[in-house]
Amino acid sequence: MSDELLAELAAQEERLRFRRFDNETAIDLGIHLLGSARAESLPVTISVRRGQQRLFHAALPGTSVDNDAWIDRKSRVVDRYGHSSFYVGTFFRSRGKTFEADSRLDLDLYAAHGGVFPVIVENVGMVGTVGVSGLPQAEDHAFVVRAIEESLG
To answer: Which of 70, 99, 119, 137 could pair with 128 in a Cys bridge, judged by C-beta atoms 3.0 to 4.6 Å apart?
Structure first.
């Protein structure tokens, strides 16, 4: 199951690529995520970054400062590994390991739980992250993927 999930997660990263990603693109994506989360009454915090600059941030009712910390920790995983935070955690599990025990990273700074996805620009590579925190990890991931798919048309 893990290998099938890994292949699916890798395919998402190959498929979901932007032609360009500037401040307006980031804000539009964030607004789309916010609208979807409000429509579904989801208790999520949303973050869209280019490089280390946070270009969009929103926290809906039912969230706390802990969700900000989760997004930061998951974003560091994406920055370090170049894959979604869900992919990284799934990769470790597929090898019979855990990120927490085997990554040798500070768990106060890194979390390989679903919810943060790399922003990849065609012919450029990864330029940022888009993420949410507040739902179970698979749901966080699916929500972000769906929003990117809708934004890309």
So the answer is: 119
